Amino acid sequence: MFRVMQGYIRAVDAVNHRIGRMAMYGIFVLMGILLWSSISKTFFVPSLWTLEMAQFVMVAYYILGGPYSIQMGTNVRMDLLYGEWSTRRKAQFDLLTVLFLIFYLCVLLYGAVSSTAYSLGYWGSAPFSFFGGLITGTEEIGTMERASSAWRPYMWPIKSVMILGMFLMLLQCISELFKDVLRLRDEAN
Asked: What domain range is 6 assigned to?
C-alpha cells in the first residue's frame, strides 16, 4: 500500500512539476499581450481581443500553476502557530485540512464540468453523461456559448483549461494527503 502511495506521489508530482514550470512562462505571454494592447491603443486602432485574451492567459497561468505551488509549499498559509509545531503535528493538521480542500475541489470540478458542458450547448443536468455521449456519439454539441464582448470569443477553451487545472489540483492534494500519511507513519516508526 505504501509503495503504491509513493508511486502515485512520484507520478503526480512529476506531471505537476512539468506543467507548473511551463505555466510560469505564461507571464511572458501575458506581458506580450498587454504590451501589444498598449502599442495598438497608442499608435494604431485599439485591438478588441487584448483585454479578454489577457484575462484568459491569466486564468490559465493561475490555475495551472496552483498544483505546482502546493507541491513546492509556496502557497499562502497562516504561520502563526503552524511554524512552531513538530513535523508530526503539522502532518496531522495538514491531513485534516487537505480533506476539506479535496471536498472543495470536487465541488469546483463538478461546477467546472457543468459550466463547460453549458458552454458547448448542453442545458441538461447530467454534464458527465453529456461528455460521455460526445465520446460515444450519442450527444451533439449545441449552440456554443460566447462572451458578451465585442470580440465574442468562445468560452469552452478557457473552461476546459479550468477543468484541467482543478483536476491537477485535486491530484496534487491527494498526493499531499499521501505525503502526510507517510510522514505520520515514519514518525510512528
From this structure: 2-188
